């Protein structure tokens, strides 16, 4: 039973609430609990956890919400009492601390500390860029712990900082040391003569703690953020900090570390470092340098970089680390044992993955899976700090739960020979992670032993002897439990590799003459030199613990208790930014591939046959196809149900309406969306096995699509009519019209569709509401053949007369054409191009290329337009039909300008409105179709390729031309107009695609 408590206007940091959630979850009787701020993003997390309630959904981003799954109602009082105690303890721990007074605005913060020179920002990323911009305007350097800041914003902020002589560290900057003061998740490191510049995080922590334990120190460790060395940002912070550290006489040795940088940025950084006056050590993770240069050293591991820095400071070689353990039980290589590695952060995980790949001699690195740095042949390296594991959950540095779960899974795998993991000490980390993991480790050791297996637990403890958790205590606890504890990550990974009978090479490097560039170093700004030479004066936005640590080191700090403005929903912005900057796939290029498929398509009308002849699903039992995404019969609007009645009477499954409805309600008939069987259907889309359908083949790709024939206007099946007249017309179409057209088409060897469309669009058709030119062009193709066919003269006359009278006849051919074209295009299975739009009177559904067959739905709208005499909007049925497939190929409402003759009919005011509509559609499409030129649009091609990202970004939904059915079956068509899809469909689609590509909020 879900119970909800909403604390209005009670804002707390997400990390604090994660810790609180963990604490509450341990209460006996609490099956599941989540405590978060009710931001839109967090509401989604509640939903994913099955904890969404009406009270939650009605809350705002400034409300703290507790949702607990409990059976005993009285337990809620216990939960709320513990929550109150938690916050009381937090409040009490802050009382009496120097400078602990909080403020709630920039003005008050600056008033309290007017000479502040560093803003530490740990608020939601969508707002972090705005606050960082404000800090720069106030003359402050910025440390951005926040992530989810766009790369465009990052670049703009860093360019602005550079112009002002300031620095932006981050975003997603987890670690920093300024004048010996730890910032964010950092260890207590001895001040010294070594300077470090890196992305910041576990890599800097590993470097600084090794240096500290070797007896040397670090004065400044500046985090740049992981994207600083990208092509887009260009190493702005890195370059500025190199200049500053070179001008800082107290720095004797400089270390520069980075995950793989962009090639041109790496070259720029290397060129700058080649003329540095001080000894420089570089580590570009993933590269395996073969040599050093004089005073310019190129390292492979963090361990090597740290020991080399210490050696350079001392002038004597630092000893290599050793691992003292009994190797007699290590596995031989032919045992084929695997390593399972679980890390707190990306850099250490990346280093482990690199070394294991080296030992496995992988010529081509395996593809990364979601959350994995390595996953190959049973070996895995997981970055548990990846977003996929931390969405709505505490970071693995502070919560052992996920690592425990992983270790349990690892031991269940009989191939596992080693479980490798790190323990991160320092500020912000768990107070006793070793102790928290030991019960699980001991239990798993016993389990493996009972099964006659040996699983080695290998660990590295990243910390110093001044860290409050106690380095030696953590090491000793692990050793006493039989864990092999290594001084550094490299040694731990090597030991793990050796434990399965393998190793990697790390040959001694020769020192070659330094190759210098012609770069002229820039003079560092006075503001940066000041930041590196004084204890920072900090305004802290976000996590209070960051302020408390800085105060312990004698810094002046003001705590800014920031709250999200207006409770704004930023999830869609994050999603769009992810897709825009996703580096695993060029989405724009993928979209262009989809469009290229559309342009290259060659649809050909191949035949006209009974549906069951080409749709295998219709050959067994009673099957009816319907328009739109899947819908149950009881949810179909009345006209669609009426069309089903007509289909039952047509197929002679019943001989009266009452029996037909009983059959439809019985469950005996199977309903399938047309789209699921390569078909499309207009309005209700109702198609039964013996109805005549066109067969259109896209000969470029060899795929087919099917659609029933157009019945004309008025009381017709597709609009819900099912009288005897309607049924008899369908039977004539089955027995006479269909076979006649099928025979003619076959004798012609098929009819190319593109030339018909090209002719008709130049003659004023848009192929949804106006098809007269295309219908006549089709008649022109088949009439000569029909006139010479051996058939009854009356039948011949009736066929030609029907084709001549049915102005919309080509619509159904266009629909099958659109289906054949887009089904081929969506085989690309990448990108955000909309490949189908349809509606069933209950829901509107879309598909996008990158999500294959999945539907994304929202509540359907009711068309707006002009009505036949005697009817108005009150009579209209919600939107129905698969005919919006025409808009996905760029015609219909998307090409409104092509058909000025119908703009008034479909609700547009006239030519100017049609032009405005089509022009607006170019805002959400990515190309023009060169096959379909529109003369009265300055001979431009029809707009093509609806990009779901653009729809969401701009709030413009595609316009769809459509007929309007009466809401009561039997009346048929009562008007025509336009309708727009609900934007919710597109929002769901891009969210799902982003998730598929690895995005987590």
Automatic annotation (TrEMBL):
Pfam families assigned to the protein according to its UniProt record, in alphabetical order: AllG, CoA_binding, Ligase_CoA
Boundaries of every CoA-binding domain copy: 192-270
Domain of life: Bacteria
Residues covered by the ATP-citrate synthase/succinyl-CoA ligase C-terminal domain: 343-496
SUPFAM superfamilies cross-referenced by the UniProt entry: Succinyl-CoA synthetase domains
Protein name per its UniProtKB record: Acyl-CoA synthetase FdrA
Species for this entry: Sellimonas caecigallum
Lineage: Bacteria, Bacillati, Bacillota, Clostridia, Lachnospirales
Gene: fdrA
